[in-house]
Known about the structure:
The protein has seven helices and eleven strands. With about 240 residues, the chain is an alpha/beta fold. It folds into two domains: about 1-75, Nucleotidyltransferase, domain 5 (2-Layer Sandwich), CATH 3.30.420; about 90-243, ATPase, nucleotide binding domain (Nucleotidyltransferase, domain 5). It has a six-stranded mixed β-sheet. Strands 3-2-1-4-5 form a five-stranded mixed β-sheet, sandwiched between helices. Strand 8 and strand 9 form a beta hairpin. Helix 4 packs across helix 5 (about 170-200). The longest helix has 27 residues, at about 170-200. The radius of gyration is 19 Å and the shape is globular. About 35% of the residues are buried.
Amino acid sequence: MNLVIDVGNTFVKIAVFQNNSIRETWKFEKKDFLKKFQKIQSQYPKIQNSIISSVSSGDDFLIKEVKKHYPLLELDQSTKLPFQNNYGTPSSLGKDRIALAAAAVKEHPGKNVLVIDAGTCITYDLKTSEDIYLGGSISPGLGMRFKSLHKFTANLPLVIPKPEAELIGNSTETSILSGIINGIKMELKGIIEAYGSDYQELKVIFTGGDSQFLSIPLKNSIFANPNFLLEGLNFILEFNKTQ
């Protein structure tokens, strides 16, 4: 069994894999890590290997705790990857984007794949049919757009996101909803179309915390997988076992 850990700024996501299949997943605040980690250990005593991806240098206590119990692969820019990385500045490539590219290679080898991760930011990552990672783009996420309008203006309210919005808002609230929700929808459709025109038979994977929320208008062309990043981390761990 493998223990796969993805540490964000606030939340930790953990999955236990057996034979490359997820047995169980958890999501909780970072402050609850020790308690949750002990429970997982007790529940799954056959865990033998682990991998961790952390966005913060302040997560050393998590890493030390896991190392006490299991061999641990810490994902960084020197980790051996199951794909060719052609990113121009690999030292600055986010660990989440590395894991998503790995998952795309595992699930769709020999295919052109665009992975869209809708979280704090919306990231777009492309791997080609030759299983080469090229890069992509980063834009503000759903929550960030609503908060920025409120924070950086004098009078605009903080609006609660909704999955649908009229094209023409007839109040300040509905105008904000129109601008952000329809703006993201058009961004997604436009980028997918642009990539699709350059890369034949493009597969699109939509994941991340807001993926279900934002994939509604694109459901006919999008495959949403909330555990895609965790699957990529597990694939990297399995790949490094053979190196």
